[in-house]
Design a protein that fits this description.
The protein is of the alpha/beta class. Helices cover 41% and strands 15% of the residues. It is built from twelve helices and 13 strands. It has helices spanning 7-16, 36-46, 62-72, 84-98, 114-121, 139-145, 168-180, 235-249, 254-266, 270-292, 317-327, 354-365, and strands spanning 23-24, 79-82, 104-109, 125-130, 150-156, 184-188, 211-216, 229-232, 296-297, 305-309, 329-330, 332-333, 345-348. It has a seven-stranded mixed sheet, sandwiched between helices. Strands 9-10-13-12 form a four-stranded antiparallel sheet. Strand 3 (104-109), helix 5 and strand 4 (125-130) form a beta-alpha-beta unit. Helix 2 crosses helix 9, helix 4 (84-98) crosses helix 5 (114-121) and helix 4 (84-98) packs across helix 8. It is globular, with a radius of gyration of 20 Å. The structure holds pyridoxal-5'-phosphate. Pyridoxal-5'-phosphate (PLP) is lined by residues 28, 84-86, 112, 156, 160, 188, 190, 216, 218, 224, 229.
């Protein structure tokens, strides 16, 4: 698999050029409104003095870092505000590789394809640990794959693409393995507000100098275009990460940080509860239809995604293109996520047209 040129944009371009109505189940862009305070924050910002249109502190607005630190129970100094979760993952992986404690990054399979892409870009090598058919990760397999060259173990919970949510014992074991091999556990938790199982455990709940947690407001506030995320690093890793962030990005969007801070302060938990409820309904309606169509599917315990396997229709790029042209539904080929799910297609449930998509798929495969 060539992870250096992500397939995502290729599929989107194909769907856009299809010359017919296509239901987009490729992108992870929430289709619902952000919290009201987000738009209010931007409106307020437009009236501010010109000095607010200049560089913010490179590591992020102090008040935003303080707000995140208070919510997550860490020191403000440990928080770096990044260009989304993607920026946070980049900093975390770069930091792990710079420590001179190995050159290999352990990834899970199926994998969020940007991790292997970033690993290669950063000069690291990758090894994969396969997850179970329900997406769960067995820490024993991680321990067997870990070695003295392991620089980092990168996990994502709730998971894209499997929808798995790792229980506390898995997270605890992963931190312990990172400590044992002088590696860093990088826990990407961008879907933490979409835990449908109530079993989500943040790696932050396990105190360690060997774990970095990355997150973003892209999904939780339905603002993937705003580009505000963060990394929480152990004290001894944070300064070098800030320097890299400064050299690579200077800083991330100041208006975006302001609007996110306003949203954190003003938004009640009901906003996320409503989003989870909506997603739960979509998962049920989509998987019921897959069941009726005789397809195999993953049960999403979190995140936005369901993987489906249709008999005699492997999840190749060609078949995904056929599905766009002939059924009018766009998904992501399973092969984009590595070798273990090549028979599968991933569908993102962040469209109001989930029901219509299920009908199109049922008609197509009947
Ligand atoms: C697992 C995972 N991590 C990170 C990201 C990127 O997040 P952001 O848009 O905040 O950079 C995504 C986006 O889909 C994702 O699925």
């Amino acid at each position: 698999m060539n992870y250096e040129t992500p397939l995502f944009f290729q599929v989107m371009e194909y769907a856009n050029a299809a010359g017919r109505d296509v239901i987009d189940m490729v992108s992870g862009n929430p289709d619902w409104e952000p919290p009201e305070a987000l738009r209010e924050g931007f409106t307020e910002y437009a009236e501010l003095e010109p000095d607010r249109l200049q560089y913010p502190p490179s590591g992020g607005l102090l008040e935003l870092r303080q707000e995140i630190a208070a919510r997550r129970g860490v020191a403000t100094d440990q928080v770096v505000i990044t260009n989304g979760g993607g920026g946070a993952n980049y900093l975390a992986m770069a930091r792990a590789l710079e420590r001179d404690s190995g050159n290999e990054i352990l990834l899970t399979e199926p994998v969020y394809p940007y991790y292997p892409g970033k690993t290669t870009m950063l000069g690291g090598t990758q090894a994969f640990v396969e997850t179970a058919s329900n997406g769960q990760l067995d820490p024993v397999d991680v321990r067997n794959a870990a070695n003295s060259n392991t620089a980092a173990i990168v996990v994502n919970t709730p998971n894209n693409p499997t929808g798995a949510v790792y229980p506390e014992r898995t997270m605890r074991e992963l931190v312990a393995i990172a400590e044992e091999y002088d590696a860093i556990l990088i826990s990407d938790e961008v879907y933490d507000h979409y835990d449908l199982s109530e079993k989500f455990t943040s790696a932050l709940s396990i105190d360690s100098a060997h774990r970095i947690v990355t997150n973003a407001f892209s999904k939780s506030m339905a603002i993937t275009g705003v580009r505000v995320g963060y990394a929480i690093l152990p004290p001894d890793l944070v300064e070098a990460a800030k320097s890299r962030h400064m050299l690579v990005n200077v800083a991330t969007t100041r208006p975006g940080q302001y609007a996110v801070l306003n949203t954190l302060r003003e938004t009640p938990p009901e906003y996320s509860e409503r989003n989870r409820e909506r997603l739960r309904e979509r998962v049920v309606s989509f998987t019921d239809a897959l069941e009726a169509a005789g397809a195999a599917y993953t049960r999403a315990n979190g995140s936005f995604y369901v993987m489906a396997r249709f008999d005699g229709y492997p999840g190749t790029l060609e078949n995904v293109a056929r599905l766009i042209d002939e059924a009018g539904v766009a998904g992501m080929p399973g092969e984009a996520f590595g070798d273990s799910r090549t028979a599968w297609v991933r569908f993102a449930l962040v469209t109001p047209r989930v029901k219509e998509a299920t009908e199109r798929l049922a008609n197509y495969f009947e």
